[in-house]
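Q: Can I see a sequence and its folded structure?
A: Here is a first one.
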Amino acid sequence: MLKAGFIGAGGRSRGAHYPNVNRLESVEMVAVCELDETRLKQVAEQYQFPHTFTDHRKMLDTVDLDIVYCVMNEKWVLQPALDCLNAGKHIFIEKPPGANSGETQQMLDAAIANDVYAMVGFQRRYAAITREAMRLVAEKGPVSLVTTTFNKQILGGDGKELTTTLWNDVCHVVDLLRYMAGGEPVEVTAYRDKFGGQSRNCYTALVRFDNGATGVVFGNRASGGRVLRAELHGVGVGCYMKLPEEIEIHQDNRRHTMGGWEVDGVDENDVDRYEGVLTMHEHFVDCVLNKKTPVSDLRDVIHSIHLVDQIEGTLE
């Protein structure tokens, strides 16, 4: 049984992470730290935490923990994450991992130095339809083409934000692109545009990978609403995904459509399962118990972060 601590009780933690970790039989939720005492009381009562704190360092000094879910905005995560890693704790953090790639590297260095894992919540890797698409294409590979699209309508911006929309949101599908391609980028052509404001909100990138696959990223916040889609193509097979709910499979000129819940064989209402959040947390715990590096550990994610920098134009 792993003893788990939590730092942060914001909306993402309470909506996705607390309830799913609570479903894991091999984890005991023993300590929580949150600056907002109202939120602290709420989660402590809901999940019956025996230990509560408003100072994460005191939590680390007081309670014997195996893993820590350190979930908060990228502008605040660095120091708590480093404190956990340097205390020898395996951690789970949300994307993006820090406020910039330098902070990502600091956390990675600390994870390596202390021989612990630092898993990042790139949940699209764990979605049922992502796993199914990769399985089908692996059977009839190699990967030829990958596309990822993540659009929303978020207009405005004065150009003075702490991070860009590519860093704090579109990074999701940059990571998914690289993960599904199965290689590392060797050529990147990118366009960064501003529509309806002074902040970059439209990114388009063409990526060539070292295994011969080609990838295309579309990330547009000047569009008309939220769309999250992807394509993965092999030889004689093409998978068209509406994440996380549906995959349309074209194979040898035959078409078949499945819901994410059908892929995982679960109830349609168990969104946390087929969306990938529960699977992601199960994977993290399994890796800690069996001493295996998680799929989305910083040791791998750092390469996605380098690709984000290339698309942003900060790493040529």
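Q: Show me another, different protein.
A: A second, unrelated one:
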Amino acid sequence: MSFSKQVKEELLSTTGSARHCQLAELAAIFQFCGFIADAGNGRPAIGISTENKTISIKCFTLLKKTFNIYASVSVRRHNLKSQNFIYVLRIEDLKKAKEVLMALKLYDDVKGSCEPPDSVANSVLLKNACCKRAYLRGAYLAVGSMSNPEKGYHFEFVCSKEEQAEKLLEVLRDFSIEAKEVLRKKYYVVYLKDGEAIVDLLNIMGAHVALMELENTRIVKEMRNSINRRVNCEAANITKTVNAAVKQVEDILYIQKRLGFEKLPDNLKQMAQLRLEHPDATLKELSELSDPPVGKSGVNHRLRKLSELAERLKVN
């Protein structure tokens, strides 16, 4: 099972206890998956149509808890060759359908008119923070997905209308989550790529098990990256030290050939001999081998003097 599906399975059992929260979640699902059709004789039939079984189960549960309505459920294939199924929930009872539409602020009883089913959720339904959490939960179930955190951090909502995407951005900003929007073919995609922001969003929606799994993955990845950086840094330092030692040995051998050690000051002569005898020694080790001992800066100074002398001899 993909990580994205794990999150949806967890959110399936997460439902707000208050009716206003249940309405907010139902409004999100209806906004992205709902339809209003003619059931015959001019009677409206409302419901949702989705390829995601999880959404159909959640919507059925919400209708039962919020309105005590049992929607009819039908399952059909996309086509004869397809392995994918479409789950359709329908409410054909006029009185019950109107009750749901009015609760979702999609029906004006005075004018007797309906808003389109894909209209953005009415702000009245999202007055409270708990309702906004429920709305985001419903939106994720309907059009959300996220990548496996082992591979990378990417969370997105895929909306068919720009107004839907703008509404999601607005609600996310209310929780101090700055998401981005991009047009992908004909869809408006609201997405997050920051691991910490995704953790916050999972917490907001109530996916606490998935949150802990993501946090564990983040910790392991950060530790691995930290170790890799340290190893790379140490490898680079070793390479730098080895290259410097090789260059020092080459310069000292050149001085020995052109000038000889006899003409060198005692401190440089001693350092030249020590470096030739201990080509792999560090500056600290050379400082301890010196007689009398000198500091690392003193060793570095003498080796630099020898290199400068070799350069002058090469020029002349």
